[in-house]
Amino acid sequence: MRDFLPEEATIIPGHGRPMRPADIEFPLRYLRELDSAVRTAIAEGRSIEATLEAVAMAHYGECSLFDWAHNSVNMPAAFRHLQEPGGGLA
């Protein structure tokens, strides 16, 4: 997606502030890392609670809503989705 956008384009995300194409790398990196870490935790047989502890990803903590979004929404949703047959983007 990023490659076909002109550098001066403005991306309006579903939440958060508008961004330029170069700015989208941060959330994409977070989502890729989340996916990989949760897949690893599931493969290790961790529970959702143990995965939440193992996949803290505190280095993304500079985002104002990170703790809430990661702990209450993103990580649990990724865990549930990736446990489903065929879940994830593989």
List the helices and strands and how they pair.
Layout: H1 25-43, H2 48-54, H3 66-83
Helix pairs in contact: 1-3
Low-confidence segments: none
| Distance, first to last CA | 19 Å
Strand content: under 5%
What class, by secondary structure content?
Answer: mainly alpha
Largest beta sheet, briefly? none
Radius of gyration: 15 Å
Series of secondary-structure elements, N-terminal to C-terminal: HHH
* Total of DSSP H or I helical runs spanning 4+ residues: 3
Shape: elongated
Helix content: 40-55%
Give the averaged pLDDT, no decimals. Answer: 90
**Number of E-type strands:** 0
Structure description:
By secondary structure, the chain is mainly α. The chain has a domain at 47-84. 49% of the residues lie in helices and 0% in strands. The chain has 3 helices and no strands. It has helices spanning 25-43, 48-54, 66-83. Helix 1 (25-43) crosses helix 3 (66-83). The protein is elongated. The model has no long low-confidence stretch (mean pLDDT 90).
